[in-house]
Amino acid sequence: MSVEELEKLLAEKKKEQIAKKQQEREHYEASRDNIVETTVEEAKELHKKLYDFKKTCLDQMEGFREMAHQIRRHKKHQQGRVFFAAQQNPRNDTFRS
Q: What is the pLDDT of residues 77-86, one digit of tens each?
């Protein structure tokens, strides 16, 4: 083979290698994009679920807080009425009020 033929074969081989690397890179980028898109979609779904969970919890706590506030208000109206109940202390035979 002549030098020109060898150079031509070498150039073709380099083009093939470049094309192969480009194809591998495109495959890599497509796979990466797919993984990123899937992960982001799952994260968005999880974010929405967590947001809904937080909202539900806060709504329930607000309802409970309001109920506790009303109970405290009711107890304040009953101040002045002190009830004592005698209980026997199980550790010793004393009574406490």
A: 666 555 544 4
